[in-house]
Amino acid sequence: MKNTIALFFVIGSLILLSFTGCSELKNDKTPVEPSLSVHGIGFADTTNQLSANFHAAYVRTKKYDLLLCQSCHGVDYAGGKTGQSCNSCHNKANGPENCLTCHGGGANAAPPKDLSWNMNIASRGVGAHQKHLLADTLFAKVACAECHNVPKNVKDAGHIDATDHAEIRFDSTSIFFKSNAAYNAGDVSCANTYCHGNFPGGNAVTMVWNDVTGSAAQCGTCHGDVNKLTVKEKAFPKTGHTYAAVTADCSTCHGAVVKADMTIIDANRHVNGKLN
Ligand code: HEC
Ligand code: HEC
Ligand code: HEC
Ligand code: HEC
Ligand code: HEC
Ligand code: HEC
To answer: To test ligand 4's pocket by mutation, which of 160, 165, 209 has the most ligand atoms within 8 angstroms of CB?
Structure first.
């Protein structure tokens, strides 16, 4: 008898529990605004930007055609008929059309991040961008326009097009690319650039854009011989004034660029297209 009462008690409380459980569930339900269905869940969830539901991913599948968004959110992206402004989040100049929205975002508009939001140098879209663009102790800076056509506006012709990758446009009138400089999109490499040794006595090395070894910066890669012992021997051009022919320190004649101990004293004068 005692057991049956206990059993009833247990079953009873279970039923009661399931009822309260149910009603709690009902109260927990967030009311769904009909207008939310315009875009799916997660479209504006900035805590989950890598989600395929986030609007960035959608914009990519639409080949970045922002006209699609402007039709409802206004040409100035301030909300238009939706009343929902893009510029509340995209609060830099020109809203979503700012140069840092789709690529770059650190010091400049160049990757990282790349168009697939990769951050690592091994990614083709990231590669050696910042090595070329940022101030360095060894080499002069390179401008975007040395390698690309640079758009003034997002919609400029030649900027966003049907191709998967960015276009490389070497300016053949520039000393850097004058003789036979060539970009190979197949293996993401460039050959015969002045910067990487295409000058008398230089080594004219072919560089892989997303190489991660960092060997490109060593004395002797672009001119001279990496396998020699001292820095001076390493750096001497292979022809012309070779190590065998010239015994004076480099600084005797290139004093604006190097010190006698072979440290570069003015990066802006090294790989700047001029002999100093
Ligand atoms: C057919 C009209 C329409 C088009 C086209 C449209 N939107 Fe919207 N969008 C709305 C409406 C209405 C809302 C507000 C209600 C809602 O969130 O669904 C909204 C809201 C948003 C929000 C949330 C805003 C906030 O502050 O939470 C984002 C983000 C957004 N849209 C991005 C886009 C992007 C990106 C595009 C272009 C790819 C786009 N929309 C195209 C109608 C549109
Ligand atoms: C709730 C904040 C928010 C709103 C509103 C918003 N965005 Fe974004 N959007 C972001 C964030 C965060 C990113 C990630 C990149 C970044 O930080 O700029 C992003 C990325 C993008 C990108 C880059 C896509 C890519 O692949 O890199 C585009 C284009 C864009 N938004 C367009 C819009 C447009 C157009 C609207 C208005 C219709 C809009 N956004 C409204 C927060 C927002
Ligand atoms: C030394 C040459 C060089 C300079 C300077 C340079 N880029 Fe690039 N850029 C490249 C190469 C190489 C690629 C890879 C192209 C490919 O995938 O075939 C690339 C790719 C890109 C991409 C596409 C990324 C992706 O995900 O595919 C963007 C965007 C870009 N560059 C923007 C810039 C901007 C903006 C600047 C200046 C702030 C700049 N680049 C400066 C060589 C350069
Ligand atoms: C809505 C996204 C978006 C915005 C905003 C944007 N870009 Fe781009 N950008 C791209 C895409 C996509 C590519 C790859 C180009 C392709 O399809 O060939 C690219 C490529 C580039 C390249 C490499 C050369 C090329 O055309 O392939 C440069 C340089 C560049 N962008 C500079 C800029 C500058 C400067 C701005 C600001 C005026 C800007 N971008 C704004 C999406 C964007
Ligand atoms: C006696 C003066 C003198 C010394 C010492 C000297 N150079 Fe030069 N260097 C020149 C002159 C002049 C040129 C111009 C081209 C030529 O006549 O070979 C030149 C050209 C170069 C070039 C470009 C190659 C070319 O022909 O365009 C490099 C690289 C170079 N020097 C590096 C060095 C290095 C590294 C050292 C020290 C290891 C060094 N030079 C020592 C005078 C000198
Ligand atoms: C990325 C390729 C590259 C590497 C690595 C390199 N150089 Fe050069 N170097 C050049 C180029 C290109 C020149 C031709 C002149 C110019 O444009 O400055 C040059 C020229 C020189 C000159 C002649 C003076 C002048 O006008 O620049 C000296 C001296 C020199 N390099 C020393 C060095 C030393 C020391 C190292 C190692 C720290 C080194 N180089 C590494 C590319 C390189």
So the answer is: 160
